[in-house]
């Protein structure tokens, strides 16, 4: 048995049938049933975008901007420092510039000003002559700052998409889908709202901004459905064909060739856009998107690339520190770690790492002793809504905002313990133990024959994948034709699956530790994503494994294996024990060693059977009492009764007749002579003598064998020596010289589990 790391959630209910049936099933799981819905989903169109004027306040905002442009007013675009905020800022700047506006942008310094609009920035804007401020991807929680703007005579237009809090800012107008009852779609990213504003300002779809929309939307992890699906579908094409020198340089540096997909944006471009604002002022990221100078673009792209490398190093250092600090606290319902000197810009990534490692909601805070404050980020598990639960203790925060799975916050450092206690209490009241186990939704179970290039091409019609349209996970169950470790550090697992002519490679990155826990003949269950591996012009399906398991107990056939110590995997404490049926006193690897009848063996799920039992009943008795997940059969031979010839009744009859005539028999001298004369083995002759002695047919004194004159009539089977030899032969035949299939079937029966269908295998070492 090999347990899965995650909780497998089989989500499908219908039969998949043909290839089209698979697509229908996948669409059905996404709530898409009618032909009209299918057409819109599989063939996104810009004509499906909603009217931007359905957003409350849009007409007022458009009129105010056009009025400001007409009068030559200075307009300030106030953005955010993440990829969504950076792309939103660049989009709004280009839109205003195309309309002839006098404009500039401002992004607050994460380390000095914190998140969102702030009073000092607004007062500086007023002093610099700005009379209109447009926020992008921020501002919905800026209640105080809106009052400051009104006091200064600045008109404030807020465009945002973050969760709406209890009080709305008193801005001139707010463009936010979730405050607009008539707007059909409420899950736009910040750059999506900016795009709708640009659409309204320009009077047409602003196709020139689609590449920016794709970057911000994918990076911000909003649901890729409805308008977001349309914008990202067209936006990825725009990124592929982009003429922006900054994006072209970024793609070149990261070897992004050909068609750009959501993974290239989500794992390559987006994180690099984010890295700038995490370590310093985010303005260079905006400049990278806006510049039209190729030389400047190359310099900025290289600068951003280096910042991302620095970011990765800092994240790992803080994550290592946080894990060390946690110690036993990883059992808390909600993990909270805080330390002075941590970089606040990367704490969200660190929190994500902690969530993945410990399956707990996590908050990571940087402490500023001078201010007496702690500032940081939170990430959560599916079952715990971070925004909702933190809002229940909103009074503990100086600043707070975010989503169900991610949030940012500032609080007094002396309230960290109180926050930990409050959130742990809420989690303990609302969550079950199963909620802490990461869930892996499985779209469908497939046989190996069903995994084809055509099938995968059908699946790819659902792209772009993302939130609310996840890349499907498939479940396959097969034996591995080959199982090996790959990679320079041998930390990745590769399984080659074959079944009746069908073949598939399954790659499990970072899961090399499972290699030693899988017996070669075991049926393995894989859950992963299907993709096409292209190499030297060849295309073949492959499975990128997310999780794997062996559901049944496993038999590791080590019969005949020498140097067991070299093959022994690492066992956790109290996981494995060795069993001796005879006089073995040394165990490999320092594992605990017990006699086969020791009651403590029931505490172990992995057993190594070092030698053969005297009888089949000894092993059957042991197996009936234990509950094993893995069984290693070593069964080292001290003698080899099975390979020795058991004397027949004719042998016994001849020897007894010869002894009666001769009168006596010297066990040393005569045994050798008889062996040469008859071609028998000396051991066989001694065996016959011992059987006759057991039965009382002879006496043995000083090495001389003599016939008993009046023996009782007995059968050979009544001899203890004869019985032991027969038992030893049976044990060796069934346990040592049997095939893997035969051995597995017999053990299955003793474990009182149904024998599984197992193909003929060659036992390890035989």
From TrEMBL:
Alphabetic keyword roster: Coiled coil, Exonuclease, Hydrolase, Nuclease
Domain DHHA1: residue ranges: 334-428
Pfam families: DHH, DHHA1, RecJ_OB, ssDNA-exonuc_C
Gene3D superfamilies: 3.10.310.30, 3.90.1640.30
Annotated RecJ OB domain residues: 444-547
One BP annotation, GO: DNA recombination
InterPro entries: DDH_dom, DHH_sf, DHHA1_dom, RecJ, RecJ_C, RecJ_OB, SSDNA_exonuclease_RecJ
DDH domain residues: 74-217
Coiled-coil regions listed in the entry: 290-324
GO molecular function: 5'-3' exonuclease activity; nucleic acid binding
Domain Single-stranded-DNA-specific exonuclease RecJ C-terminal: 554-747
Listed SUPFAM superfamilies: DHH phosphoesterases
Family: Belongs to the RecJ family.
Protein name, as recorded: Single-stranded-DNA-specific exonuclease RecJ
Native source species: Salimicrobium flavidum
Species lineage: Bacteria, Bacillati, Bacillota, Bacilli, Bacillales
